[in-house]
## 1
Amino acid sequence: MSQVNNSLSFANPHPANFNTLQKIGLAIIAIGLLAITFAWLNISLVSPAIYLYFMLGGFAIGGGLFFYGSYYDSPEGIKNNSNFFSSLTSRGALGWIAGIVITGFYLCLYFKDYTDKILQGNSLGGLIAMFDPISYLLRGRPSDQWFVYGSFYTLAVTIMGIKFIVKYRHNRYQQVRTISVMFFQLIFAWMLPGILLRLYNYEPYWSYFFPLDYDALFPSNLSYIASNGALGQFTIFWGLILAFIATPILTYFSGKRWYCSWVCGCGGLAETAGDPFRHLSDKSLKAWKIERWLIHSVLAAIIIITILLLVDVSLQGGLLGENLAKGLSRGYGLAIGSIFSGVVGVGFYPLLGSRVWCRFGCPMAAYMGIIQRFKSRFRITTNGAQCISCGNCSTYCEMGIDVRWYAQRNQNIVRASCVGCGVCSAVCPRGVLKLETGPETSKRTEIQMNAISFISADDVDVLS
Ligand code: SF4
Ligand code: SF4
């Protein structure tokens, strides 16, 4: 089944060739995609439940064959072959089509009332009916648009997570953290809320909290959660502890990676389904400047809005009034919660890379980033003397950090935006980069250490 490349070229002239197993896998995946399309368009060749089984079977069997065909006869080591040749992963026609389809799905999801009116019917009716069997099994009630979304999300994280584990199979850090994000998505963000909804008529999400869960402290939402008895009170308590005590402590000891790369669902999707697109992140200085302003503005906005709403309630509406209070909470929800995090954040994976939301918009990432930058023991150390300036680390940094710049100067990387995914270290052919937690160093000490290590021990050996 393995292919022999007879070319004498240094670069593979046929990078996009698929072997037989991969072709069979793709054909079976296409059946799953066809089932989704038929269900979505309400083409009733079979019952919605049969479409569901075709989709699940198509993705599981087809995906399994494709991944097996991709990696079974290749030695350990990370392969990113064809990334810059494939139309899907290099902003070609397939990339644009994927971006438009995913963005269209998100628009139908978040603006369903409008798309229903335009299409004069339930724009997601067929898809919602397709998920009824699972919804009854898990939640004891019919499916709805958000259950469809959560199920697709979990499916993508699970299937692409398995692919990620196989691709990075020689790297323990990548395997363990991927199992972790798959676990939190499957159990905490999908199964547990469904089971609790069935039992107590209330579905809490315990892996999201303020400020990412933007309305967690809005007065109207707090009173709704508290109305759900002991479960609601525990949810409020849990959210407060996680947001204001656990987050600073964990970020101090391990950097923001404990959440962004091990727990968060947004990060989970970016790391698994978004992995083929990670090299598309903008590495320019201009992008970095936009990133700093935008992400901290979003954090400031949600803190100010939350404080205003809480003060307004304590003054019995005397500060904002009903209309302004509703306008502020709904405005943030629409602009940031729906359009930025969903439509742009995921829909634009094939065009702007996998961490657009995490990098430019997530207030949780901004909050932890400030702690990581100024008060954390996490850093990426570099052994600059070994660096061959290949640039792999910068190319595959999904947060657009020019890792090579630091490696060439033998400098520790202490950046607010680094999510600690460890891929820069995994793809480095020389073992230059290490994710470490060491004693805290002040900015002054760091500058002094960098100055001392500008000529390293290895350089002296080479010179002597
Ligand atoms: S610098 Fe390395 S660990 Fe940090 S986000 Fe970039 S690739 Fe991940
Ligand atoms: S991947 Fe490693 S060798 Fe290549 S530029 Fe980065 S640090 Fe240097």
Note: Residues 451-464 have pLDDT under 50 and may be disordered.
## 2
Amino acid sequence: MTSTITIDGKTVPFTEGQTIMDAALAAKVYIPHLCHDPEFKPHGSCKLCVVEANGRNVTSCTMPASPDMVVINDTPELNEDRRALVQMLFVEGNHICPACEATGNCQLQAAGYYLRMQSPHFMHFYPPRRVDASHPDIFLDLNRCILCELCVRASRDIDKKNVFGISGRGIDSHLAVNSESGRLGDTDMAVTDKAAHVCPTGAILIKRKGYTVPIGQRIFDQKTLREFHLEQQKRVESEDGPDGG
Ligand code: SF4
Ligand code: FES
């Protein structure tokens, strides 16, 4: 049965089991996000997608839509909070965009542009982070990891390999590699694995592919994060549809 919610005054239909994010994206209403990907179970870690639903702040990627819910999404206040979250992600890691191979393809960078981030605002942490070049085809640089767990979900749910996990707590949380040595080269991860291609930043890179697409022709040189995510949703919907299998 189809019911409706309203988002910023627009009536949006949803079906049982859909989250606010699912319903919004299907109706082409954009809620900024980083850790959500329509191909994977929602995780609710980045908090960029927080909206006000019936007066309460909730993560729209995990909150089920319910009949007559009133959602507020695109306001200066919520976008300011989202900008602050992106700024915190920048200072909490070591994101050196001009020197990063993923520049122009990075969703964190694109979120900064989308939310009109002018500076990191907060003091940089400069945390010591590990770089792992042990795999013949895949490079892992934890300096750029935003703990979205997309690689964890892809490796566990699609590749069925459990190559990645999260270790530590709070400020010490970090991406861990499930091998005795803790090195990627000692896992059975393959360059064809889904987990090798889901990272929204430059934390997981494919070796010998850097700069094959020149700067100026990369994803976010051509489109905004909003356009990218709405296209991603459309692609997943068509793959899931009757003709997509
Ligand atoms: S390596 Fe990439 S995909 Fe994995 S948790 Fe970090 S940012 Fe997310
Ligand atoms: S997209 Fe909802 S918490 Fe990250």
Note: The pocket of iron/sulfur cluster (ligand 1) is lined by residues 145-151, 175, 198-199, 201, 203-204 (CB under 6 Å).
